Amino acid sequence: MKQTRTAARQSRHQRIRRKVKGTSDRPRLAVFRSHQHIYAQVIDDTRHHTLVAASSLEPELRQKLGKGSTCAASIAVGRLIAERAKAAGIERVVFDRGGNIYHGRVKALADAAREGGLDF
Q1: N or C: which end of the chain has fewer CB within 10 A?
Q2: Coiled-coil region(s) at which residues?
Q3: pLDDT digits over 65-99, tens only?
Q4: How many other β-carbons are positioned within 10 Å of the β-carbon of residue 119?
């Protein structure tokens, strides 16, 4: 029986998570992409604690962008997560694409986070 798209993404994400772990020295930058929005979190997996978060749902971004499902929204979220991470003293992260293909909105967020100063 064929898996649904969501189930296939979740199984890919579990496979990735077995290898990608965030530490306090190098936390994990986790990306979740829904149909309408994109979310990013910097997570310390040893303490199970979210250090920094940003999404296209935030009021300041929603006013500027309108739709949260575009590459422009992903770029804005990537810049915002990098800015917040730098303010929290985080410079190096491990990228977790969340089972999504590294293309389009996920790639745009990653590139913007790199341009913002995060190293991964």
Answers
A1: N
A2: none
A3: 888 889 999 999 999 999 999 999 999 999 999 99
A4: 10
Report pLDDT for 4.
94
H/E element, 30? strand 28-33
- Indicate the helix (H) or strand (E) that contains 87: helix 71-87
Q: Among 44, 57, 117, 46, which Cα is nearest to 81's?
A: 117
Distance CA 64, CA 105 (A): 17
Joined tokens for residue 93: 């992260």
Architecture in CATH of 5-115: 2-Layer Sandwich (3.30)
| pLDDT tens, residue by residue, 50-63 | 999 999 999 999 99
Strands 49-55 and 38-44: antiparallel
Tokens 């579990």, residue located: 14
108, 71 contact by CB (below 8 A): yes
- The type of residue at 43 is I
Does the pLDDT of residue 28 top 90, yes or no?
yes
Cα 51 from Cα 39, distance rounded (Å):
14
